[in-house]
Specification:
The protein contains 17 helices and 15 strands. By secondary structure, it is of the alpha+beta class. The chain folds into three domains: 4-118, Reverse transcriptase/Diguanylate cyclase domain (Alpha-Beta Plaits), CATH 3.30.70; 168-377, Reverse transcriptase/Diguanylate cyclase domain (Alpha-Beta Plaits, 2-Layer Sandwich); 410-496, no CATH class. The strands form four sheets. It has a six-stranded mixed β-sheet with strand order 8-9-7-10-11-13. Strand 8 (264-270) and strand 9 form a beta hairpin. Helix 2 (25-42) packs across helix 6, helix 9 packs antiparallel against helix 10 (280-297) and helix 14 (418-436) runs antiparallel to helix 15. The radius of gyration is 25 Å and the shape is globular.
Length: 497
């Protein structure tokens, strides 16, 4: 028996760029399924020669007893992935492991360090072509001639062709897993972006991610079986949370699907990651329910040992490029994580609490959230409209709102009576004045307080009362109107008659 085994690790890169390369929902559908199969079906021929430890959420770890089996995986697995999913790249690393696996924890840490370094070494794309090659009009990559089942000719790049060639039953499989409905019909899956909209054209891209998972995993690295068991339980908890959140949304009176089509299109649901495209009016309630159930499903020894998650919601028009929307959702999630990791926000067990950050895209181009914060949310050196993130549970006294607190204050503005409409108008005028002249905005406050009814004045006070954070006075007015618009604005009355 050999003195050493070989611990192989692979990390999938470029997942989101591959999924959101075009604005065609049918391409996004196929791409998400291809990505999910990378660590399972695509790695299966290689994993059968060893012992798979982890194969989910874009990560693979496998122990090989024979050097030649490990070399076979290193040589051919990335090539097979890039051929079936052009645009995806694989980072790989291998470390030696004692035959009794007594050094497993230390070698896993070493493997992760090598994988991190390997990600900085770009691999050559397999989809390059000569300058004179015919290009896809949607992606700009070299195109191949494709004839669909109706006899129509199109020219697609290899990645888009692979997405469309992916079997529809796999797409249905992801929807069944996300919705918790094994009886779901293929006709109920949204393949057209119009199936996600309802009374307006707003949709939402949600990206949720677990907090501090690396620290938790580090405690599970003593044995391969322990790490594999944790990975499988985490994946099951994530899937269950998505199913429970969807079950709650279906019961809401404004769920209103178009015929039999579900207004949710799951994109990623694996490990501690969840990405979904859905109707804007349902997004906040869905993701709030998701992170609440994620905590409940990951409880181990008491409430303080539950895992937590942060999420970002990018609200955008249905015609807006998906890849910009996803980038913003991911950036919002990271912004939420950054705030949750503040020392005064951490839970007793040292974990960051669950929270949500959102933004409604107003312009034609989004580069990054820092630019949005600078151009749209910063009034001057003393005042800001960046009020989020919003927490699942109360933190830091009165300086942060919970999600329920935000929703309750927005509900005040939904009132269709005269007071409700007056409050909305006053808040909009106050926001305009804040950008023009803060002194005029403060004069507006005094006038509203002097003449408004109790209900209107209370709503206005909630929206325009600032809280001090880091030397800046932050206000919730902008977020309240954003959420109000995407959830309640009616621009397609004829569709609802």
């Amino acid at each position: 028996m050999s003195e050493y085994k070989f611990l192989y690790g692979a990390s999938v890169q470029g997942i989101q760029g591959f999924i959101f390369q075009t604005n065609e929902l049918k391409d996004i559908v196929g791409a998400s399924e291809l990505v999910e199969n990378i660590c399972t079906e695509m790695f299966k021929p290689y994993g059968e020669k060893g012992t798979i430890v982890v194969n989910a959420a874009g990560n693979v770890k496998c122990i090989f007893s024979k050097k030649e089996d490990c070399e076979f995986a290193v040589r051919y697995f990335p090539k097979s992935v890039m051929e079936k999913a052009p645009g995806i790249t694989i980072s790989q690393a291998v470390v030696k492991l004692r035959s009794d696996e007594s050094d497993f924890k230390g070698q896993v840490e070493k493997l992760e360090q090598q994988l991190h370094a390997q990600r900085n070494k770009p691999l050559r794309r397999v989809s390059y072509g000569p300058m004179a090659a015919l290009r896809s009009r949607k992606t700009g990559f070299p195109a191949v001639k494709v004839v669909n089942n109706k006899g129509n000719v199109d020219f697609l790049d290899e990645a888009t062709k692979a997405k469309r060639d992916h079997p529809e039953n796999s797409t249905l499989k992801l929807a069944k897993k996300s919705f918790g409905n094994e009886e779901l019909s293929a006709k109920a899956v949204a393949y057209d972006i119009g199936d996600l909209t309802d009374k307006n054209d707003w949709i939402a891209i949600i990206h949720a991610d677990g907090n501090g998972l690396g620290q938790v995993v580090a405690t599970k690295n003593n044995k391969p079986g322990e790490l594999k068991d944790f990975s499988e339980k985490l994946d099951a908890a994530t899937v269950k949370a998505a199913q429970q959140a969807f079950a709650e949304i279906v019961k809401s009176p404004d769920y209103c699907p178009k015929g039999s089509v579900v207004p949710f299109r799951p994109v990623v649901l694996s490990g501690d990651d969840m990405t979904v495209i859905c109707r804007a009016s349902l997004a906040m309630r869905y993701v709030t329910s998701y992170i609440r159930h994620f905590e409940e499903n990951t409880l181990s020894n008491g409430k303080e040992n539950a895992l937590t998650a942060c999420a970002g919601i990018a609200y955008m028009k249905s015609s807006y490029p998906f890849h910009y929307g996803y980038r913003l959702a991911e950036a919002l999630c990271e912004e939420a994580k950054k705030d949750a990791k503040r020392e005064d926000h951490l839970r007793k067990d040292g974990k960051a609490p669950s929270c949500i950050m959102f933004h409604k895209i107003q312009g034609s181009y989004v580069s990054n959230f820092s630019q949005i914060e600078r151009d749209e949310l910063t009034i001057n050196s003393k005042n800001s409209l960046k009020f989020g993130p919003y927490y699942l549970k109360q933190v830091d006294g009165e300086t942060r709102w919970t999600i329920n607190e935000l929703r309750n204050n927005v509900a005040r503005l939904v009132n269709e009576k005269e007071d409700g409409n007056t409050a909305k108008t006053d808040i909009r005028q106050w926001l305009t004045l804040m950008h023009e002249d803060t002194d005029k905005a403060f004069q507006k406050e005094k006038r509203v307080h002097a003449v408004a009814s109790h209900h209107n004045d209370e709503t206005f006070r909630k929206a325009t009362s600032g809280l001090m954070r880091g030397g800046m006075c932050v206000y919730p007015a902008y977020d309240m109107l954003q959420l109000l618009t995407v959830e309640n604005q009616i621009t397609k009355e004829e569709d609802n008659e």
